Amino acid sequence: MDSGIPVEDIAPIAILMDELRSEDVQLRLNAIHSIPTIALALGPDRARDELVPFLQDSVDDEDEVLLALAEELGRNFEEYIGGKEYAHVLLGPLENLSSVEETLVRDKAAESITKVAIVLSQAQIEEFYIPLVKRLSRGEWFTSRTSSAALYSAVYEKVSPSIQDDLRKGFTALGADDTPMVRRAAAKSLGPLLTRFAQNHLILDGLPIYRRLQSDDQDSVRLMTVEDLIVLAQRMSPAEVKEQLLKQIRHTIGDKSWRVRYMAASHFNELAEAVGVDLVREELIGQYVQLLKDNEAEVRTAAAGQIPGFSKLLDKEVILARIVPCVRDLSQDSSQHVRAALANQISGLAPLLGNEPTIEHLLPLFLHLLKDDFPEVRLNIISKLETVNTVIGIDFLSDSLLPAIVELAEDKSWRVRQAIIEYIPLLANQLGKPFFDERLGNLCMSWLGDTVYSIREAATVNLKKLTEVFGVEWAKVAIVPKVMGMGQHPNYLFRMTTVQAITTISPSLDLDIVRADVIGPLLLLANDPIPNIRFNVAKSLEVLAITFNTTKEGRDFIEQQAIPALEQQKTDQDADVRYFATRALQKAQI
C-alpha cells in the first residue's frame, strides 16, 4: 500500500513503535530516552500529530519505562513540537501518567506538568491546564486525585480571581478526601500553595485546610503538616500566630505518634524563627525541652541536631538554665545515635556561652564524649574542635582534651587507635603546626612501629595527609628523616614500614627532597635479605617513576637512579621481586 509518505519519514516512528513493543525492558528504556531525537527527525508538526498521541497511548508498560517517559516530557520537550504555544499538547500523555499505580511515576509526571506550566500562557492555562487539574481532582481512582494536589500551586498566581476561588475549593476537597493517601498528598502540597495565597485567603481558606489535616486520624498525614505550619507562621504576625496557631503547635510537638514529633524536632529551628522571639521564650523553650527528653531515641536525635540553632534565639542565662541540663543528660544517653548527634552540635554552644561557662559546663561533656565507645561520637567531637578552640583558646584545650586524645591513641583496641589516626589530620589543621610538632608529632611517628599492620598502614596515609596540610618543607624536616631512619632497623617490619611510607608519601613530596633524602636509603633496601622488602622497593620505585616522569628533570632522575636498580632486581632469585621489578620497568620506560 502506497501512503504517499517516503519510507525514510515513516522510519523514526516505526522504529520507536517496534522498540517499545520489544520484550527487552532495556531496549524500551533506550527507545524512550531517544524520543527527543525522533521528534527532531519528524519535525514539529509530525511530532505533535503523531509522536505525542502515540506516547499518550503508551502507558501500559513497566514502571521504569513510564518513569523515563514522564521525565523526558518535562525536559523542555515543547521545543521539539513547535515551541511554547504548543506546550499544552504535552499535558495529554502526562495526565495519563499521573493516574498510574506506581507512586514514583505519578510524582515525576506531576513534576513535569508543573514544568510545562511555567511556559504556558494564561489563556493556555485556563483552557487546558485548569480542566486537567479538575479532572484529576475529581478522578474516580485515588491515584489521579493524589497527583492533582501538587499541580495547584504552580498556576495559582497566573489565573483570574474567579478561577483562584475554584482552585481553593478544589484543594479544600482534597484535604477532606476519604482516602488517606490523597489527604497526605494535600498536606505535602499545602505549604507551597499557602505561600501564593493572598493574606485574607490565608486566614479564611488556608487555615481551615491546615487545621483539618493537622487533626487527621492518620499520622502519615499529620507529619506532613509540620512544614505547612512553618509557612503559616512565616506569613502571620506574632499576635496572629499566638491567637490562631498556638494550639496546633502544642498538639504537633506533643503528638502521640513519634513520627510527627520527629518531624517537629527536625524542623524546630525553622518553626522557632517563624513564630518570633517572644513566643519562643514564652512557649517554645518548654516544648523544645520536652522533645530533648522524648522517650523515642529518633526524636531526641533530631532535637539534638537543632541545639545551637535554637539556642541562638535565647539569652545566655536561659541556655544555662534550660538547655545545658538537657545536653548533660543527652551526653549520657543510652542511644549512640543521640550521642553522635549531640557531639556534632554541642560545640556550637561554645560561642553562645563564652569562655568561662564553656570551661565550666561544656568542657567536661567534651571530655566525656571524647571517650565514648562509639567511634562516630568521638569523630564528631574532634571534627568540631575549632569552634571550641576560638572560644577557650588552644592552651586550655590542649591541657584538657589532648590527654584524652593521647589516651585513645594508646588504647588496647587497635580499632580505636585506627579511628584516632584518621582524625589527626583534621586536628592538625585546627591546632596549627607549632602546637602539632610539640604535642602530637612523636605520637604520629610512634604509630609506624605499631604491632598491628592496619595501624602502620593508616599511619603512613596519615603522614601523607599531614604533608598536604603543613607542606613539603615541613615534611622534609619533621617526617622524612624519621621515616628513612627506620630503614636501618634490625626488625624487618620497621624496614618494611619505611618502604610503604615512601610509596604512600612520595606523590606529595617534590623531586629535590626525594633526590636528597629518600632515594639513597630506598636503593639500599633494594638489596635487603627479605624478599618482601625487595619487591615493595620495586613497587615504590614504580610510584616514583609515575610521579616524576612528567618533567625532563624527573625522567633523568628515574633513568639514573630507579632504572638501574630495577634492572638488577629483574634477575633476582625471588619470582615476586622479578615480577614487580619488570612491571615497574615498563612504567618507568614509558
Structural descriptors:
single chain; 590 residues; mainly alpha; 40 helices; disordered N terminus
Count of helical stretches: 40
Rg value: 33 Å
Low-pLDDT residue intervals, each spanning 5 or more residues = 1-9
Percent strand: under 5%
Give the oligomeric state of the chains in this entry, treating copies of one chain as homo and distinct chains as hetero.
single chain
Task: Kindly name the structural category.
Answer: mainly alpha
How would you portray this structure in words?
76% of the residues lie in helices and 0% in strands. It is built from 40 helices and no strands. Helix 11 (161-175) runs parallel beside helix 13 and helix 24 (336-345) packs parallel to helix 27 (375-383). Residues 1-9 have low confidence and may be disordered.
Write the topology of this structure.
Elements: H1 7-20, H2 25-33, H3 35-42, H4 44-56, H5 63-73, H6 91-97, H7 103-119, H8 122-137, H9 142-148, H10 152-155, H11 161-175, H12 180-194, H13 199-214, H14 219-222, H15 225-235, H16 238-244, H17 246-253, H18 258-266, H19 268-275, H20 277-292, H21 297-304, H22 307-311, H23 316-330, H24 336-345, H25 350-353, H26 355-370, H27 375-383, H28 385-392, H29 394-409, H30 414-431, H31 433-439, H32 441-446, H33 453-470, H34 472-478, H35 480-485, H36 492-505, H37 511-525, H38 531-548, H39 552-569, H40 575-588
Helix pairs in contact: 1-3, 2-5, 3-4, 4-6, 5-7, 6-7, 7-9, 8-9, 8-11, 9-12, 11-13, 12-13, 12-15, 13-15, 15-19, 18-21, 19-20, 21-24, 24-27, 26-29, 27-30, 28-29, 29-30, 30-33, 33-34, 33-36, 36-38, 37-38, 37-39, 38-39, 38-40, 39-40
